[in-house]
Backbone:
């Protein structure tokens, strides 16, 4: 489980530093004849991502969101396809915050039931 609030359109410096420590050639990835090969694909990673604004697919500020896309890229580089629980719009008022938390709860329930 990774907790990742959106900070200034991307991940926090602490999470970035941790990522820099786990992307290790020969341990979590290697370079093959056709490019990088992830070596950590046997891990299940769930990312709990929170965002104060609205950055969903198709929204006007989607292009400003660089946490979800970054985490998909770096985790994919080491062979992991992350699953996301996203709560967004948390700073847009009580009604939006409640809706975001309810949606995140539904996502958690769905992920728990898919655990097998």
Residues:
């Amino acid at each position: 489980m990774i907790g990742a609030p959106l900070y200034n359109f991307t991940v926090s410096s602490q999470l970035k530093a941790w990522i820099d420590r786990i992307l290790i050639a020969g341990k979590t990835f290697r370079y093959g004849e056709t490019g990088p090969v992830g070596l950590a694909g046997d891990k299940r990673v769930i990312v709990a991502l929170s965002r104060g604004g609205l950055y969903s697919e198709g929204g006007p500020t989607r292009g400003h969101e660089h946490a979800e896309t970054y985490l998909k890229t770096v985790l994919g580089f080491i062979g992991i396809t992350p699953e996301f629980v996203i709560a967004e719009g948390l700073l847009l008022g009580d009604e939006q915050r409640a809706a975001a938390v309810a949606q995140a709860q539904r996502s958690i329930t769905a992920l728990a039931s898919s655990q097998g």
Remarks:
- The longest helix spans residues 94-113.
- The chain has three helices and five strands.
